[in-house]
Amino acid sequence: MSKMRLFSAVVIAAAALTSAVHAQGWGGGMLARYDADKDGKVSLAEYEAGRQMMFGRVDADGNGAISFAEIDAVAQKMGNDQRAAMMQKRLDALKAADANGDQAISADEYKAAVDAEFTALDKNADGFLTEDEMPQMGGGH
């Protein structure tokens, strides 16, 4: 895959992940979970660590890559409520991170998508996410 196609795939995946995050709405709850040093903001390293938890949950066989079959298995376990629909968007976005087209998301592909997602959310480009840069739960909580 050419560098331009790889870059385009990562940007598309990040946009889809960011869109899914906005649709899901996580605001202060996510800030509290990801802000490991409790300084009121989330660094890229903290964000990557938090997102890595999702990678580990979906990588059911623990081989260091998330297959499309593993993504689909997670989707099948979800109900049909609004949260499940939002999670399905996130899982679909995860598939978009497959930059090399091998039907699996490697740790490197995932990291590239997460880093691009962080950059898209970091509106003031200061290297940190604050509560005002994070999508809020319905009702502004």
Give the strand order of the largest sheet, numbering strands 1, 2, ... along the chain. Answer: 1-4
Oligomer state of the chains in this structure:
single chain
| SS content category | mainly alpha
What is the total number of structural domains?
A: 1
CATH third-level topology? Recoverin, domain 1
Give a description of the structure.
By secondary structure, the chain is mainly alpha-helical. It has one domain: Recoverin, domain 1. Helix content is 60%, strand content 7%. The protein has 6 helices and 4 strands; from the N terminus they run ααβαβααβαβ. It has helices spanning 3-24, 27-34, 44-58, 68-77, 82-96, 107-121, and strands at residues 42-43, 65-67, 104-106, 128-129. The strands form 2 sheets. It has a two-stranded antiparallel sheet with strand order 1-4. The chain has a two-stranded antiparallel ribbon with strand order 2-3. Helix 1 runs antiparallel to helix 5 and helix 1 (3-24) packs across helix 6 (107-121). The radius of gyration is 15 Å and the shape is globular. It starts with a helix and ends in a 12-residue tail after the last strand.
